[in-house]
Specification:
By secondary structure, the chain is of the alpha/beta class. Helix content is 45%, strand content 12%. It has 8 helices and 7 strands; from the N terminus they run αββββαβαβααβααα. The strands form 3 sheets. Strands 5-6-7 form a 3-stranded parallel β-sheet, covered by helices on one side. Strands 1-4 form a two-stranded antiparallel ribbon. Helix 1 crosses helix 6, helix 2 packs across helix 7 and helix 3 runs antiparallel to helix 8.
């Protein structure tokens, strides 16, 4: 389960699995480690959900988050475990697609790769926080714009209604999937790449370089104005 901090990942996991992972209530991120639920049964299948921090965590850098997720995924892959599906959580209550959302989704795509998109679900939640017509308008815009590229390649977009039944309905789309190997797992384990050499690592380096250059430009402008 992936997505920005505060997008409802941990709440979704607790509702689906009966776990009691800590959920953030304030401005601080709560999930700062990759954590897996105990297996639970759904339609006769044994399901384990994996909670991940967002790439906008308040207590860890994006570099730390990528290294942590990469280490966990490569370790499980080496032990023979593959993912039946990947859920990306998005708040329908967000009134615009800001830089944090864009960065998280770009990193998500680089972690997964193109070949696993049929195992991806984009799950919108927090519908109770918006008027139905506003939510539907945003949903349509997400389908035709922001998430269009992955939906065209086999991903699905579903609504989470905030109940246990809704989480199980969503997970039923995944439990019979052919397990997939994520791009970062292939790169780290099969190709023996360092984390910075992976597609996600290259993307993170690009973003950090952009931020550094922008910071240097701002500092230079301030000096000129003094």
């Amino acid at each position: 389960i992936m997505g920005p901090s505060g997008s409802g990942k941990t709440t979704f996991i607790n509702e689906a699995s009966g776990s009691d992972f800590a959920v953030g209530k304030g401005l601080e991120s709560c999930t700062s480690e990759v954590q897996a639920t105990k297996p639970f049964k759904l339609n006769g299948r044994e399901v384990t959900l994996i909670d991940t921090p967002g790439f906008d965590d308040t207590s860890r850098s994006d570099t730390d988050i990528l290294a942590m997720i990469g280490a966990y995924l490569s370790q499980t892959y080496e032990h023979g475990a593959k993912l039946a599906g990947i859920v990306y959580m998005h708040r329908i209550s967000d009134f615009r697609m800001g830089g944090t959302n864009k960065r998280n989704f770009k990193m998500f795509r680089e972690l997964c790769g193109e070949s696993t998109l049929r195992n991806v679900l984009i799950v919108t939640n927090m519908w109770s926080q918006v008027a139905p017509d506003i939510g539907e308008m945003r949903e349509k815009e997400l389908e035709t714009n922001f998430f269009k590229a992955v939906l065209d390649k086999g991903a699905r977009m579903l609504r989470h209604e905030g109940t246990r039944e809704s989480t199980h309905r969503i997970l039923r789309y995944l439990i019979h999937n052919q397990p997939a190997t994520l791009l970062i797992q292939k790169e780290l384990v099969n190709e023996h790449k360092d984390i910075v050499q992976t597609s996600a690592g290259f993307e993170l380096t690009r973003v950090l370089n952009e931020q550094r250059e922008h910071h240097e430009e701002v500092v230079a402008q301030l000096r000129r104005d003094m």
